[in-house]
Design goal:
The protein has helices spanning 2-18, 25-31, 33-49, 53-67, 176-189, 203-231, and strands at 70-71, 76-77, 82-84, 90-91, 96-97, 102-104, 108-110, 122-123, 128-129, 134-136, 140-141, 146-147, 152-153, 162-164, 169-171, 248-251, 254-257, 264-265. The chain has 266 residues and is of the alpha/beta class. Strands 3-6-9-12-14-15 form a 6-stranded mixed β-sheet. Strands 1-4-7-10-13 form a 5-stranded parallel β-sheet.
Length: 266
């Protein structure tokens, strides 16, 4: 019993760290369906392991009706497990969940086969699974992994990786030198395209990133060509490239000058 209350205290303290709307211990213990589901799962799991399988299933069904969260009593769940909102969560019999894992509503940890044995996912420590995501089959999500909302994951996920999309794919972060180079090029052009592209792929941001890479390469080539021509004593006029704020913008039947402030008709 002391172990049960220790785990409960850890679960609730972890909610204060991960949910800014949590205010008091009493509020959490009385109004959070995720906490209710975990409390009863720890009980039903013990019954399941001691071969009181029917009773464990009955109690877990009662909790499902009450909370909207379905956790099979055979699932193994670690410490400081947090279910945010909770409605629609399904966790299968052979699922294994490590410590400090967070699941959002609509998550399924399901199987892809009808044969007995290990058929549900393993989530290692510090994994976060976004709303509506489906993690299917006897796969492993490495420690610190992040599963994006509505992703469908059917393959192993490396530690500290972020997975998005259907089917799920790992997002590879750009190397620091490439990101800093893009930032410099974007700053020269007067805008920043990276606020939307740090963690999740955005098609527009991806296209802009490709343009920035291309512009950077072209600038380098042009600079080398100019140096080579000057070395051959070629006479080249130094052409000043106007700033974007000074460019004349043409629209249908009108002409505007962008001065970095509000545009005015000529």
């Amino acid at each position: 019993m002391p172990s049960f209350f220790k785990e409960l205290r850890e679960d609730i303290n972890s909610i204060f760290d991960r949910d800014p709307s949590a205010r008091t211990f009493f509020e959490i213990i009385t109004t959070y369906p995720g906490v209710h589901a975990i409390i009863f799962h720890r009980l039903t799991h013990k019954l399941y392991k001691h071969n009181f399988k029917w009773l464990a299933r009955v109690l877990s069904n009662v909790v499902r009706w009450y909370t909207g969260i379905e956790i099979h009593p055979g699932a193994q769940i670690g410490r400081r497990f947090f279910i945010d909102h909770g409605t629609g969560i399904v966790i299968g019999e052979t699922a294994e969940i490590g410590d400090d894992v967070t699941l959002y509503h609509g998550v399924t940890l399901g199987g892809t086969a009808w044969k007995k044995g290990k058929r549900h996912p393993t989530l290692e420590n510090n994994v976060v699974v976004g709303a509506g995501a489906k993690v299917l089959g006897p796969i492993t999500v490495g420690a610190g992994g992040r599963i994006g909302s509505n992703a469908v994951v059917t393959k192993d996920v490396p530690a500290d990786a972020t997975v998005v999309g259907v089917p799920g794919r790992v997002i590879e972060r750009e190397k620091d030198d490439k990101q800093s180079r893009r930032a410099v090029t974007a700053k020269k052009m007067g805008f920043d395209a990276y606020g939307v592209a740090e963690d999740a792929p955005d098609p527009v941001a991806t296209a802009i990133n490709c343009m920035l890479d291309h512009i950077h390469v072209m600038d380098e080539k042009m600079e080398k060509m100019c140096k080579a021509l000057k070395a051959l004593d070629a006479e080249l006029d130094d052409i000043q490239i106007p700033k974007l704020g000074e460019l004349e913008i043409h629209t249908e039947g009108e002409s505007h000058t962008n001065t970095g402030e509000e545009s005015s008709d000529k």
